[in-house]
Amino acid sequence: MTTRLGVIGHEGYDGLAEILEFLAREAPAHGYSLAYEAGLLDDPSRTVRLSRPDQVDALITLGGDGTLLRGARFLAGAAVPILGVNLGKLGFLTACGHQEFPESFAAFARGDYQVQNRMVLDAESVSIGGAIGVRLRALNDLVVHKGGFARVLRLRLFADDELIGAFAADGVVIATPTGSTAYSLSAGGPIVVPTFESLIVTPVAPHTLALRPTILPPDRVLRLEVEDAPDEVLVTADGQIGTSLGAGQTLTVRRSASTVQLVRFAGNTFFTRLRRKLGWGGLVDRDR
User: 29 in the Ramachandran plot: left (φ > 0), alpha (ψ -120 to 50) or beta?
Assistant: First the structure.
């Protein structure tokens, strides 16, 4: 039985062509048929074009964390494992690097891996009348910010219609545990083990010393209202796509009914990556 393998890649990375050649040579021998996203190969007439999640049984992303996040968004909730290959510097979400890929791919083909189900956020803008506007999906985080305006936002945050607090800040990050090591961490948020489902709310540069990041149960529905705002308040999902909140609109955020399935190999634990990638606990194990 042939397994359909989708390939998404970032053309700006060195090593991409080498891995694509490896896949073209080795994947069929392991029972895989390949489908590539548009623009990834020079001769698209000789390959299958990847355009829908239902075309694949597994997905490989070639690049960095941003490429993996883009791949997760492409799947749109489909239960498809993602093997992330790091071709850049950090690659915190990926499962292996360029040099380890041949060995990792062989293990993947044998089924010698684990799948971690990662929590995802669904968000939607809501007008005063209750009409649903733009819908967003995020594996890492949703960020409400003021764009290029040199002034603060005044925000009101609710959980299940209970007011958590009103505050002034440059913005706010609503993150998943997976996203706790991304923008939320840079803004002073906590590190959360990625399989421990929760909602993490981290204000960005709050104008009070009393406000702290907050961890909430994953089944809460968050609602964010923006008061006394500049003309345009921006909402960004995973730092890649977004929308704006107009006057009178609110942002509702909840845990998605679907998850993202990330491939993990033995030894590639969360705390190993924390030490090596982020220097957690000292710089001894950090990548050179």
Answer: alpha
Tokens matching residue 258:
């679907």
Question: 3-class DSSP state for residue 272?
Answer: helix
List, as own/partner pairs, every contact residues 247-250 make where C-beta atoms lie below 8 angstroms and the sequence separation is at least 24, other chains included. 248/127, 248/128, 249/125, 249/126, 249/127, 249/128, 249/133, 250/125, 250/126, 250/223, 250/224, 250/225, 250/226
CA 178/CA 53 separation, integer angstroms: 22
The active-site residue, picked from 14, 54, 57, 65, is 65
Indicate if 14 belongs to the active site: no
How many Cβ atoms sit within 10 Å of the Cβ of residue 220?
A: 17
Q: For the chain, which residues make up each domain, given as ranges? A: 3-118+259-278, 121-255
Give the other-Cβ count within 10 Å of 274's Cβ.
Answer: 17
Q: What are the tokens at 130?
A: 């209750």
Q: Is the pTM of this model over 0.85?
A: yes
The domain 121-255 belongs to what CATH superfamily? Probable inorganic polyphosphate/atp-NAD kinase; domain 2 (2.60.200.30)
How does pLDDT run across 177-194, given as a tens digit for each residue? 999 999 999 999 999 999
The CATH H-level (homologous superfamily) assignment of domain 3-118+259-278 is Probable inorganic polyphosphate/atp-NAD kinase; domain 1 (3.40.50.10330)
